[in-house]
């Protein structure tokens, strides 16, 4: 039987979205470093610009590699009793949540998601950590809605069994 991520995969635009978002951060850091060299250390303008471009190229190559590996390592599945989410490849994190502990399921977008047509599916429990770790990000709208409905069906099924109402 296929896993949920195989039936409702992440969108590859997630790689580009994360790359651009992180490169904006790298650009700011590189610019600050270059300005510091230019004004504090009295480097000349050409040397500072070359350093800025060099740093950005190194950061871009690393970031592109990292985002592809992150995407390939990303996994989620809705099995019989649990929602499983695995992320990252350098510092892997795995979140396993039983359906009876889930309190809310919703989909949303941030600004970059909206630009790239991506959606996030969030689940929450009574614990604070679930809001940060327990979300599936980077799916298209159709898959986000399907995953949300699958989760709600699992939650409703567990509630019926727990209360004895079938």
Percentage of β-strand residues: 15-25%
Distance between the termini: 26 Å
Shape: elongated
Which fold name is given in CATH as the topology of the largest domain? Answer: PH-domain like
Described by its quaternary structure, the protein is single chain
Structural class based on helices, strands and sheet pairing: alpha+beta
Helix content, binned percent: 55-70%
Q: Compute the gyration radius: what is it? A: 21 Å
Number of helices: 6
Number of strands: 6
CATH class of the largest domain: Mainly Beta
**CATH-derived architecture of the largest domain:** Roll
Number of domains: 2
Query: Biggest sheet: strands side by side, in what order?
Result: 1-2-3
Question: Spans with pLDDT under 50 lasting ≥5 residues?
Answer: none
What characterizes the major β-sheet? 3 strands, antiparallel
């Amino acid at each position: 039987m296929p896993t949920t991520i195989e039936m409702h995969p992440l969108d590859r635009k997630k790689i580009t979205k994360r790359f651009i978002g992180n490169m904006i951060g790298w650009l700011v850091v590189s610019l600050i470093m270059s300005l510091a060299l230019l004004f504090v250390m009295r480097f000349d303008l050409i040397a500072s610009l070359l350093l800025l471009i060099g740093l950005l190229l190194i950061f871009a190559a690393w970031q592109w590699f990292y985002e592809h590996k992150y995407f390939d390592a990303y996994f989620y599945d809705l099995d019989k009793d649990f929602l499983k989410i695995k992320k990252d490849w350098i510092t892997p994190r795995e979140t396993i949540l039983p359906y009876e502990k889930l309190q809310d399921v919703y989909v949303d977008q941030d600004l970059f998601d909206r630009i790239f047509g991506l959606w996030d599916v969030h689940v929450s429990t009574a614990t604070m950590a679930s809001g940060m770790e327990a979300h599936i990000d980077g799916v298209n709208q159709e898959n986000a809605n399907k995953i949300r409905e699958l989760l709600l069906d699992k939650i409703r099924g567990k509630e019926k069994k727990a209360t004895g109402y079938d």
